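Mods, move this if it's the wrong board.
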Amino acid sequence: MDPGNNNNLKTEVKANFLPYSKDLPKHIPTGRFCNGKLTPDFIAQTLNLSDNLPAYAGHVVTANDTGVSFASSGSGLDDWTAKSWNVTTMSDQIQQFVEYIGKLKALKGEAETLDFIKKSVYIISVGSNDMMLDYYLIPLRSAMYTLPQFHDFLLGRLKTFLQQLHALGVRNFAMTGLPPLGCVPIQMSLEAVKSGPITLIPKILKPTCVSEKNDDATRYNIKLQRMLEDLQKQFNVIEKSKVVYIDIYTPLFDMATNPAKYGFKETTRGCCGTVKKIGHKYTSSLHASHKPPHSKPKIKKTKNKKKDKKNIFFPKKKKK
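Not the wrong board. Structure tokens:
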């Protein structure tokens, strides 16, 4: 979701280096954790608003704006999640939205701005980092809450954020649920580590989806849908609103468990992880660190091209 808001933050959670954005025009990394466009970019393009949804950080607001993204990779509903990675908290993202509204009012007046805010669609995707990093990986919250309690804590925070957005004039919400967390490469790798050294995972241990983690995501999504239904009723009392739940779990789980159906082969390894470049070959390492290149990158043909095309987490751009 983050198109580059983290680029100038002092954090390791960045994607402003290759191979990220390698299929975008000019192949220059933008900060998107993807080989090309993100979902919001495709939505903006489909609606004929813009080719890409720009990051709010560094964006020059104009009266002709069609939207921006406040998303910050590594953030979560729990402020501790964002602060532990030194990225922008959800609370600060809402303050940025308030700031954005103020700039628009100065450019096109209050009435036109409020109408713009009211008619816009707001895509919200959050919660995965809280679960994977804040609860599973670092045992701080798991020592404080049972999983059902942590789910309730996160949903309570989300409810407050959505109510704050509604108070600011937002009327169209598109809220994604959690993906199948047990099928995310890092979760499969960490589970495999329990059975042997990490260096043996690629050769001996074939990681598989962790059903327990997927069940956790399913239980959260059920609670989320109930909460959104209640909010829809509450918001409609004030003014007709639309609160839509987007199921990303089902299609992603099907892709992970039936990759051939979608033309994929690799479903257990992430596209990049933390990247090191050796010659022209990109390799990922769980503990390595990488500094973005200072010069403009050049893309050359590599032996990894076919692998990219078959990797569910980093599909190769199809030629028209």
